[in-house]
Amino acid sequence: MASVKWIKQISVINTTFTGPFQTIDYVYYPNKDNDQDAFPVTAININSTIQKTLDMENINTGKRLIKGIAWTGKGVITKVEISIDDGYTWSNADIVPGKNVGYR
Question: pTM for this one?
Fold first, then answer.
């Protein structure tokens, strides 16, 4: 995914390819404790990141703007929630297509 390869040959097969990059290296593991139900990476999972405030930035009390982005390999992001109390409660964030996600 991050390394460019130059193709020399393509072989068409009628079974699922079981090379190490499809079965070992690029695999999602849904169970933390074991490899059960692991499946190959074929699309990017839904993901998000907070971009503002900065990591570990001290914030005084009062209202603050929190900005971030959310993305997926398939589909469309239709809802983003944020928690400011370690996941006890959640609030909907405002979604601006093509822009960062914001919450006040």
Answer: 0.50
